[in-house]
């Protein structure tokens, strides 16, 4: 599975980061911010599974609450400090007259989630409002992967994590689903017994082969070290018209993409958070074979949720494969190069 979340028409992604070439663990900048800008009228929801989340405005996205639309979503490094990046996105959106219209101005709706990456860079090296504003201003359809944006200081268990994206089109109903993720998991995305991803179908899709035994052993040794980093955060999006409650179900289903690709996931040590967005551009007519006991939206939500989980799983592996070694945290390509030998 290839593509990008920006294959969902109207979705734009921007990144801003600071990465010192000589960054080492605990010294030097290795942190950044990713912003997902959405078209007006985009519905949003969220599902939080980790036991230690760092978030902003997630209660607002509960289907029981009144605000339906969002203007942007922020994924950022810097732990709770990094939530300041959302201030810059709000300022940028206000300048562009985006937000809930109120007497005297607008209030942009900008949910956000953070990863804990402070041990990679310096503790004082974390995103500010300027990071968010710069990422929003840079938003476009091209989405680089690896050590960019919120993925700069990310770690995937024993390996370097990063930013990844993927998309899929459900051709029979004309719906596109995409995902972008900052992979910073407490669990590994690679089986230490084989040196390959946990999902067999992703192994075939990525063209990977079993690496030599010495490389697997080296990875297993690294795996024995306790990762100080945790939390994977993501956005899944679709152009299918879905209600806020349906978006919530899509976010729930998309979390399966994390459970398939990283073990363990959703632990007390992480704050796994997935936002789901619907631009509403595609109205899907009810299928003639929809069971009487299932509403048309339920059937559509089920299909979109399944696609979102697949996209998120692919985006996770895309992030890890694109990541480069920094600050002594090895990339998959550097630690297990034999997996790419055909």
How are the SSEs placed, and which strands pair?
Blueprint: E1 12-19, E2 30-48, E3 55-56, E4 69-76, H1 85-95, E5 100-102, E6 105-107, E7 112-114, H2 129-137, E8 155-156, E9 159-160, E10 162-170, E11 175-183, E12 190-191, E13 196-197, H3 200-206, H4 213-223, E14 233-240, H5 244-261, E15 273-282, H6 296-322, H7 332-335
Parallel strand pairs: 4-7, 14-15
Antiparallel strand pairs: 1-2, 2-4, 2-15, 3-7, 5-6, 8-9, 10-11, 11-14, 12-13
Describe this structure in words.
25% of the residues lie in helices and 26% in strands. The protein is of the alpha+beta class. The chain has one domain (5-336): L-amino peptidase D-ALA esterase/amidase. The strands form 4 sheets. Strands 1, 2, 3, 4, 7, 10, 11, 14 and 15 form a 9-stranded mixed beta sheet that branches. It starts with 11 loop residues before the first strand and ends in a 7-residue tail after the last helix. GO terms for molecular function: aminopeptidase activity. Pfam families: Peptidase_S58 (PF03576). Aminopeptidase.
């Amino acid at each position: 599975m290839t593509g990008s979340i920006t294959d969902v028409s109207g979705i734009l992604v921007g990144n801003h980061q600071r990465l010192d070439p000589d960054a080492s663990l605990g010294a030097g900048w290795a942190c950044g911010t990713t912003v997902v800008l959405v078209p007006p009228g985009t519905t949003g929801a969220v599902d939080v599974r980790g036991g230690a989340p760092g978030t902003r405005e997630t209660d607002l996205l509960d289907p029981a609450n009144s605000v339906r639309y969002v203007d942007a979503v922020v994924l950022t490094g810097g732990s709770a400090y990094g939530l300041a990046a959302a201030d810059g996105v709000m300022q940028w959106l206000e300048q562009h007259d985006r937000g809930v219209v109120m007497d005297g101005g607008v209030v942009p709706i900008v949910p956000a989630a953070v990863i804990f990456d402070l041990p990679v860079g310096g503790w004082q090296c974390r995103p500010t409002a300027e990071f968010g504003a710069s990422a929003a201003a840079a938003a476009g359809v091209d989405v680089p992967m690896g050590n960019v944006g919120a993925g700069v200081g990310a770690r995937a268990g024993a390996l370097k994590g990063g930013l990844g994206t993927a998309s899929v089109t459900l051709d029979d109903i004309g719906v596109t689903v995409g995902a972008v993720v900052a992979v910073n998991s407490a669990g590994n995305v690679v089986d230490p017994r084989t040196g390959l991803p946990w999902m067999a179908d992703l192994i075939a899709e990525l063209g990977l082969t079993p690496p030599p035994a010495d490389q697997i052993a080296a990875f297993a040794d690294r795996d024995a070290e306790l990762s100080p980093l945790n939390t994977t955060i993501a956005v899944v999006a679709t152009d299918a018209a879905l209600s806020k409650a349906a978006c919530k179900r899509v976010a729930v289903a998309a979390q399966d993409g994390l459970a398939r690709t990283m073990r363990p996931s959703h632990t007390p040590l992480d704050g796994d958070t997935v936002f789901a967005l619907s631009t509403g551009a595609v109205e899907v007519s009810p299928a003639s074979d929809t069971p009487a006991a299932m509403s048309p939206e339920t059937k559509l939500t089920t299909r979109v949720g399944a696609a979102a989980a697949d996209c998120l799983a692919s985006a996770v592996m895309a992030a890890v494969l694109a990541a480069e070694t920094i600050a002594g945290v090895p990339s998959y390509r550097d630690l297990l190069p034999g997996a790419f030998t055909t």
